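Appendix B. Extra example for self-study. Work through it before the problem class; the solution is given directly after the inputs so you can check yourself.
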Amino acid sequence: MTEFVRVREAAHDVTVNADYAKGLGDAVEILDGAVAVDHRGRPLPPAPKGERRAVKKSAANPGAAATGGSPATNA
Amino acid sequence: MTIIYPEATPVQGNTKVKVVLAIADPDAPSLATEINAASSLDISLFVRDWNPEMTSNSGSAPARLATTVQLPVEGNTQFNAIEIRYVYDPQADDTTDENKAKALLVRGTEFYAVVRKGLDAQATAFAATQRVEVWKFRAGRQNFVRSGEDEFSEYEVSQLLYPQVEPVHGVIAA
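Solution. Structure tokens for the complete assembly:
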């Protein structure tokens, strides 16, 4: 299954394939926190404010898997 | 009387497509922080073609008993999923330049495509005030196929992109 990660850009945080983010090297900052995906492996849209959503463990961010978070598709 | 004979703009080499992961205002995508963001990818030299298809229905209201003329009425506009085909290296990691399009456009990814028409795609960089079309897509499944049957064929990815909203015609902001 594809692993998505959150990446910090100058203007936005974006959701992208982990391998693509790694290929960008130091040009981007990969954020901690796994990205929630649906049953097809697609990143889920942002959770409504106040709602915490369980997240899938990410190979890119194994330590952050149990923390919940604020996954988002790209704005 | 003045006769206007407008010059046509050739398509060949004059379409530039960049995948951008986030755009705050599709009417005015930011050159510095969105189009030229580190995660954005120019796929103009990855894809074989870029030719979105859309059709507008037309019809006419049911006739009445005394109707003698029926005039056409505009119906819905239908957007089709766009098929793209692009090259990749079957033996390379997804972190390599050769596989950047394959890695970026994995199934489920939502992204914007900034499409610039009418300027040399290789020689002319994106710049402020240029006119662009901005599409938002969700990437479909990646199918790994070959480009043809003959000895000139290449390995490539075939994929459908699903429009999420109507495209907008915007102007690049600084």
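Self-check: The interface with chain A takes residues 21-24, 30, 32-34, 37-39, 93-97, 99-100, 103-104, 106-112, 138 of chain B (CB under 8 Å). If your reasoning did not lead you there, revisit section 3.
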